[in-house]
């Protein structure tokens, strides 16, 4: 008589061996660290004037950043590998891919004013260094504090819109100043209010961003303007939720 064998899914953490747990945790950290390679290959693309490829590497890094937290929680990396700081690794990768690479692209592509464009680029780099190092950069109530250094997104829109360098510089300086304005911005995957709507809307927006990158350098105006719907939604939602936060959690 044939025996029916039950098909088992992934074992819970408690049912795995210590080796399996450590392997899973290290694989998650390797996945996060792959963003460093994206920064490296993106930099090579910028130097070779392959700006579309550089933005595709930024998109890859953004996807990794948006998904590695889920894997980290499943693998319980903090408990399994207490001697390795995944959050610090994540910050290093994010600074390279969200700040350094897009600023390099803007400077290299001539999107910043001749002569004093380096000063603007330096202000962006330094203000974001402050933002990353601030102890309240990520709050207990799931907000980013100050403009959350989405320079990869800013660079893409400035590059696609082909605005005058003086306009680009003005936008970058204003956003750099907002790094120091302690407004809370939505953490898309964690802020509970409208989280499902935000994630769904953000996923659709992500698809439009890929389409925008692929269309470079001749991006249809309708696609460019239509894709701005999510950044506008994100900003408005952040400001509304910030205004509703208890005063004792808002640093002034």
Measured between the Cα atoms of the first and last residue, the distance is: 74 Å
Shape: globular
Q: What is the C-alpha radius of gyration, as a whole number of Å? A: 20 Å
Percent of residues in helices comes to: 55-70%
Strand order of the largest sheet: 1-2
Summing up helix and strand content along with how strands pair, one would put the structural category as: mainly alpha
- Please give the largest β-sheet: 2 strands, antiparallel
Question: How many DSSP helices?
Answer: 10
Instruction: Count all strands and give the number.
Output: 2
What is the N-to-C order of secondary-structure elements (H for helix, E for strand)? HHHHHEHHEHHH
Which regions contain 5 or more consecutive residues with pLDDT less than 50? 1-10
Kindly report the average pLDDT value.
90
Share in β-strands = under 5%
Oligomer: single chain
Describe the secondary structure blueprint for this structure.
Layout: H1 18-47, H2 51-75, H3 77-80, H4 86-108, H5 117-133, E1 143-145, H6 151-161, H7 165-178, E2 184-186, H8 195-215, H9 221-226, H10 229-244
Antiparallel strand pairs: 1-2
Helix pairs in contact: 1-2, 1-4, 2-4, 2-8, 4-5, 4-6, 5-7
